[in-house]
Amino acid sequence: QVQLVESGGGLVQAGGSLRLSCAASGRFFSINYMGWYRQAPEKQRELVASIPSDGRTNYADSVKGRFTISRDNAKNTVTLQMNSLEPEDTAVYYCNARIRTTLYNTYWGQGTQVTVSS
Q: What span, in angstroms and rounded, lies between the C-alpha atoms of 100 and 29?
């Protein structure tokens, strides 16, 4: 069974930094797309950053220049380095990946809370 396990959330003051990590485990052939989404209270889930297998990155306008996404294909992990955090970044952050077992399927992590105090 494929699982995505996140770590690294927490409470930080505005201007601070946090690093989120997500590891894929289980039996699978390959990982295509990996990304991070977030959902604030009473808001829709939104894409924060993504990185497909070719390594090209994509960011939401609100986080460009502050967040950096990276992946380690050997370890099946994706990391989100978040700098200059703002209270508006407060949300539950979810790891997302498109993984090939017998077919490609989309998987979600359980979510990790990020709270930025002003």
A: 6
Question: d(Cα 12, Cα 15) in Å, to the nearest integer?
Answer: 8
Q: Which of 69, 24, 31, 33 is nearest to 49 (CA)?
A: 69
pLDDT digit string (tens) for 65-114?
Answer: 999 999 999 999 999 999 999 999 999 999 999 999 999 999 999 999 99
Spatial separation of the C-alpha atoms in residues 30 and 87, rounded to whole Å: 36
On the question of pLDDT at 55 being above 90, the answer is no
- Quickly tell me which residue has 């539950």 as its tokens: 92
Largest CA-CA distance found in the chain, in angstroms, rounded: 47
What is the SS3 assignment for 29? coil
Q: Coil, helix or strand for 16?
A: coil
User: Strands across the sheet with 77-82, in order?
Assistant: 3-7, 18-25, 77-82, 67-72
Q: Which two tokens stand for residue 17?
A: 């930094």
